[in-house]
Design brief:
The complex is a heterodimer of chains A (324) and B (337). Chain A has helices at residues 8-11, 17-24, 29-34, 43-51, 55-72, 112-148, 150-164, 168-179, 185-213, 216-224, 228-264, 276-284, 292-319. Chain A has 324 residues and is mainly α. The two termini of chain A are 34 Å apart. The chains are: A mainly alpha (324), B alpha/beta (337).
Chain lengths: 324, 337
């Protein structure tokens, strides 16, 4: 009746170098967890300690790491270059999966597997940069509104509500359709989602700052003669960042889904660039005869979005002291 | 004490918080008169205790003294200069002379900063006080002065107990070497055994650095222990001000007498004999204080004159210290028998 866990390793597929990485990745935390740190730590290290023991977090991080490697070095996963027109062969359009083309071929006879792999890059770039843009703008304005209060707060909050009133997909469609072809399509998607996404971060940051600024330590800093900049950067920001990070992580998945939606509606990423949304749109016309070219990008999209939302969820649980 | 140098001079200090109505166009319908005409002096190395029940304006007074709130009128002169009117660099410079120890040691320290950063922050704000390379050593010295292990400089506040945290708060207050420290209920959040340690620390620091304290509390015995002079506040005003023995042994104002009669007496014999004055009702709203004497609604001595004429804080016949009552007479409440 020995412990069955060691047998898990050899049982996993060893087809790719990455598969072994994923097995070793969660291993280090296991011994670390037993050596219980004697010193109680800060909120962040407490959260990190908590996260390392959550299977949901580990799983989502592994998926996200694979996706990051995939978008940085897609040629590690496939030898076919989908941007090379010679890799497509119209005569083999909608061919079923085979040894050489494990996900089959699409309407134009291109390899679906290679396109799905290369499509990760745009999704990740758009998700990450939209999150950075919305988090930066929303936090900056939210910090100022929450700190200044009064007229500044009232005006910026009403201004934010204007953006809240715009249905996101409709707004992004409008922006996308207006500027399509004039700006690089990826930058356009980031801008459209960014313009509509920052109000959420604004509200969360503003609320967190208002809570933080009424605490005694802010009063103590003012009594010492600290200026507004020091109070915002040293006292308010570190104490109101946690909810913003959580929302940013969860939203990242949402932005990836929104990118796919916009590309599907033909105002997002444009051909010959590759995007999962675009692939879904292309495969849609012949879905009944060949469902697989639609299924694979859709599955990758779902798993990616799910991974980010799961990670955000785990981070929220870890950072929320009430759930401990 | 009067022969010593006067470092803080508070004159007719008033702080009203406006009560407004309406959403878009706000109009003032009244004011909470939190502090309503307070005057006192503080001398070098002296402790002035301020007592009073909840909501009488003690903490607002502390905030106005610290220039965290602008007074509605009146002046707070520190070494001759009015901190209530100072701005910018002048205000910042004046803050070096008056610092604060706050009530709650759990919220007054930034949980994301290490002890070294918290105690060292005054030096980062007032860079002229200590050269950069010298700061760490100074912070460690301060930690040692307040009785903490200087090696704990890299720890976070939550790794300390309440009493230790309050010591960190005191070290932060001492960093700029102020002459005045405003202690706003510095021990009321601590266990009784820890209270004594912190009080003793404050007394030791006073001797060591010749500090002047404004010690705000609602615990009368703690105030008596540490104070040279005591002011009793009721609804935003001082009703009595004098040396600690005068206030505790020869209280002249009925409110002070009532407060003192509520202090627990640790002697069962004395407890049987002493007088209990039980006040009727609650303190009136500071938004709408009674005319004349503010205490008249709860006072057993109240006469016609109390409603018409406001008694001033002055030395009255038969008493050796200032009190604000038309019928002031000393009456030993606690030392019965």
């Amino acid at each position: 009746m020995s412990n069955p866990t060691p047998s898990v390793g050899p049982g996993l597929p060893e087809t790719q170098s990455l598969a072994t990485d994923t097995v070793t990745a969660p291993a280090p935390p296991q011994p670390g967890k037993k050596a219980k740190d004697a010193k109680p730590a800060s909120l962040w290290s407490d959260a990190w300690y908590d996260l390392r023991r959550r299977p949901m977090f580990i799983m989502s991080v592994i998926i996200i790491l694979i996706l990051l490697v995939m978008s940085a070095f897609p040629w590690l996963f496939t030898s076919i270059d989908p941007f090379d027109a010679r890799s497509c062969d119209l005569s083999t359009a909608r061919q079923a999966p085979s040894a050489g083309h494990i996900f089959g071929k699409d309407n134009l006879g291109c390899d679906v597997y290679a396109k799905v792999i290369y499509g990760a890059r745009n999704s990740i770039i758009i998700g990450v940069f939209t999150t950075l843009v919305t988090t930066f703008i929303g936090s900056l304005l939210g910090m100022i509104a929450g700190f200044r209060s009064g007229v500044v707060d009232a005006v910026s909050s009403r201004f934010t509500e204007i953006f809240f009133a715009i249905p996101p997909i409709l707004g992004a469609l409008l922006i996308g359709a207006t500027f399509r072809g004039r700006i690089n399509s990826i930058i356009l998607v980031i801008a459209a989602l960014g313009v509509l996404g920052w109000p959420m971060t604004f509200r969360i940051m503003r609320a967190a700052v208002i809570t933080a600024k009424n605490q005694d330590f802010v009063l103590a800093a003012r009594a010492l003669g600290a200026g507004a900049g020091r109070i915002m950067l040293r006292h308010l920001l570190p104490n109101s960042l946690a909810p913003v990070i959580v929302v940013a992580t969860i939203n990242l998945g949402g932005y990836i889904a929104a990118e796919a939606a916009l590309s599907f509606l033909s105002v997002g990423v444009q051909s010959p660039d590759i995007s999962w949304g675009l692939m879904i749109a292309d495969a849609r016309t012949r879905f009944l005869e060949a469902p697989l070219p639609l299924f694979f990008p859709a599955a990758f999209l779902s798993v990616t979005v799910l991974a980010f939302i799961m990670m955000g969820d785990a981070v929220r649980d870890a950072l929320d002291p009430k759930l401990r | 004490m009067t022969d010593k140098e006067r470092i803080l001079e508070v004159r007719d200090l008033v702080k009203h918080f406006p009560l407004t109505q309406g959403i878009v166009v706000k109009r003032q319908i009244g004011a909470i008169k939190a502090v309503d005409g307070v005057s006192f002096d503080l001398h070098k190395g002296e402790t002035l205790g301020i007592v009073g029940e909840s909501g009488c304006g003690k903490s607002t007074l502390a905030k106005v003294l610290m220039a965290l709130e602008r007074p509605t009128s009146g002046s707070v002169r520190i070494s001759g200069r009015d901190i209530a009117k100072a701005k910018g660099a002048e205000l910042k410079h004046m803050r070096r002379n008056i610092q604060m120890v706050m009530q709650d040691p759990y919220t007054s320290l930034n949980p994301r900063m290490t002890v070294g950063d918290i105690v060292g922050e005054p030096y980062e704000i007032h860079t002229e006080v200590a050269p950069r390379g010298d700061r760490r050593r100074r912070v460690q010295e301060l930690l040692e002065v307040v009785g903490l292990n200087p090696d704990h400089i890299n720890r976070y506040p939550h790794q300390f107990s309440g009493g230790q945290r309050q010591r960190i708060g005191i070290a932060r207050g001492l960093a700029l070497q102020p002459e005045i420290i405003v202690c706003d209920e510095p021990v009321s959040a601590l266990d009784v055994s820890i209270q004594a340690q912190v009080i003793n620390l404050l007394e030791r620091l006073q001797d060591e650095f010749n500090l002047a304290y404004i010690f705000i509390a609602h615990d009368l015995s703690v105030v008596r222990h540490i104070s040279d002079r005591v002011g009793v506040m009721y609804l935003g005003k001082f009703v009595e001000l004098g040396k600690d023995v005068e206030i505790y042994d020869r209280p002249a104002h009925p409110y002070t007498q009532a407060l003192l009669s509520a202090v627990p007496v640790p002697d069962p014999e004395g407890r049987e004999q002493r007088e209990r004055i039980i006040l009727q009702g609650d303190p009136p709203s500071p938004a709408n204080p009674p005319s004349g004497c503010r205490f008249r609604t709860r006072c057993w001595k109240a006469q016609e004159i109390c409603a018409q004429e406001e008694p001033l804080l002055q030395i009255r016949t038969g008493t050796g210290h200032e009190s604000a009552c038309h019928f002031a007479e000393t009456h030993d409440v606690v030392h019965v028998g």
